[in-house]
Known about the structure:
Subcellular location: Secreted, Extracellular space, Apoplast
Pfam family, one: Dirigent
Oligomer: single chain
Strand order of the largest sheet: 1-11-10-9-7-6-3-2
Organism: Sesamum latifolium
Low-confidence stretches: 6-11
Family: Belongs to the plant dirigent protein family.
Subunit structure: Homodimer.
Shape: globular
Amino acid sequence: MATLPISSNGTSLDQNPKAVQNWVQNLNQATQKDDPLTLGPELSSELIGYAQGITTSTSVEELILFEPFTFVFTNKAYNESTLAVLGSTPMLQKYRELPIVGGTGVLRLARGLISYQAYAYNSTSGDGTIEVDMVVLHY
């Protein structure tokens, strides 16, 4: 089991040209904001990597999420190896599955699936943690 804290501060960016120019000028001082991938639900758990991706709604009839993302592993055994996940799931389903559609490094040509569920969610801040179980086949 690995857990993935997901953060979203719920704020929108100012998109006027002057604000965008200021944002770009300050970009070189910013650090990338990836979500940590840990062995347990606490942020103090062993860090094994991070996740990058998006979640978006894809249906007007029901709550269906389209979720393309990548797990990037930074621990010794899988250093800089990745798993690519891509699929759609019903948002209100307790347990959700997504296919692993590829990988790099030690996980080259990976396939498999992840099964996940919400572990914790703060509706005020938009922060949440999901519990992820993976089955991975690779060469």
